[in-house]
Specification:
By secondary structure, this protein is an alpha+beta fold. It has one domain: Alpha-D-Glucose-1,6-Bisphosphate, Chain A, domain 4 (2-Layer Sandwich), CATH 3.30.530.20. It has 7 helices and 7 strands, in the order H-E-H-H-H-H-E-E-E-E-E-E-H-H. It has helices spanning about 1-20, 40, 45, 50, 60, 145-150, 155-175, and strands at about 25-35, 65-70, 80-85, 90-100, 105-110, 115-125, 130-140. Strand 3 (about 80-85) and strand 4 form a beta hairpin. Helix 1 packs across helix 6.
């Protein structure tokens, strides 16, 4: 009986590994929201790392996170670094591309709890009565990450954080306009 249980467990683990091996090795998560504001009212909140921290949801995840800033205040080269003994780990974000009132791309580097890199992009699409703000992240999904994703819906988890952040940005920007 014990041998049968061990064989079943080994086959189950093997099936999980094989299934994970065939999952996409690229991760892409995005959310968008309409804001009743023009791009020039929104852009300072995505191009300045300190202002971005006013609406990004990460401090809600770990209120004890310690954040520091370096480089220019805004635009390419602006850096936000964080250290957390909680859920945020250790890492930094560097703005690598900035197109005024259009787009900001940020390279995210996580050092702990495990090494990983991603590219985040926030784009602004002007409409006649406001702006569509799209927040997306892409990155490699290594084998361990693919196994992890079999048990946790990362689009739902990360996408939910994006939705919270965009809602906070909407409140912040639209309150300023009134």
């Amino acid at each position: 009986m014990f041998l049968i249980i061990v064989v079943i467990l080994v086959l189950l683990i093997l099936a999980i590994f094989i299934y994970a091996a065939f999952q996409p090795n690229q991760m892409n998560i995005s959310r968008e929201m309409f804001l009743k504001a023009n791009p020039s009212s929104i852009f300072p909140y995505i191009n300045n790392t300190k202002k971005a921290d006013e609406w990004m949801p990460w401090s809600e995840i770990d209120p004890g996170v310690k954040t520091s800033y370096s480089g220019p205040i805004e635009g390419v080269g602006s850096i936000s670094s964080w250290v957390s003994s909680g859920k945020m780990g250790v890492g930094h974000a560097v703005i690598v591309e900035s197109l005024i009132n259009k787009l900001v791309k940020t390279k995210l580097t996580y050092e702990k709890p495990f090494a990983m890199g991603q590219l985040a992009e926030i784009s602004l699409l002007e409409k006649s009565d406001g702006t569509i703000v799209k927040w997306s992240v892409t990155g490699e999904n290594n084998f361990i990450g693919r196994i992890f994703c079999l048990f946790m819906n990362m689009d739902k988890v990360v996408g939910g954080q994006f939705e919270r952040g965009l809602s906070k940005l909407k409140i912040l920007v639209e309150k300023e306009i009134k």
